[in-house]
Each structure stands twice: as structure tokens, then as C-alpha cells.
Specification:
Helix content is 34%, strand content 0%. The chain contains three helices and no strands. The longest helix is centred in the middle third of the chain and has 9 residues. By secondary structure, the protein is mainly α. The radius of gyration is 14 Å and the shape is globular.
């Protein structure tokens, strides 16, 4: 699974390829459902905190905050 996620966007290399893959909401939602993309809502107060986890087993449990 992990290698599939890492390969999911290798063809997105410039604005034109990004636009085809990620401009509209429908493809974005499909990527989220497939687990290839995680939306981040970063508040506008200028403080950023992002945790990225990779799982080699393909299974994981969401934290309380993620749920």
C-alpha cells in the first residue's frame, strides 16, 4: 500500500499536470477516499503543526483528534 501512495502523484510535475489531477473537487475527494491525500486545514494565525505518519503494514488507528 505504501508504495502505491508514494507513486500516486509521481506524474504531477508541474502546474499543468497538477491542474489536471487536483484542481477540481471530485478528483480530490476520490484521492482522499482512496487514502492517497489528506486534507489539512491550517488556521490563518500563522502557527503550523503537521504530523505525517507512514505505515508499512497498511493498518493504523486514527488518533482521537483525527477521528
Amino acid at each position: 500500500m505504501r508504495s502505491g501512495i508514494l507513486r500516486a502523484f509521481t506524474h504531477v510535475v508541474d502546474y499543468d499536470s497538477w491542474e489536471l489531477e487536483l484542481l477540481d473537487d471530485e478528483p480530490i475527494v476520490e484521492h482522499i477516499r482512496a487514502g492517497r491525500l489528506v486534507p489539512l486545514n491550517i488556521p490563518s494565525d500563522g502557527e503550523f503543526g503537521v504530523l505525517v505518519r507512514l505505515y508499512s503494514t497498511g493498518t493504523h488507528e486514527l488518533s482521537e483528534r483525527e477521528r
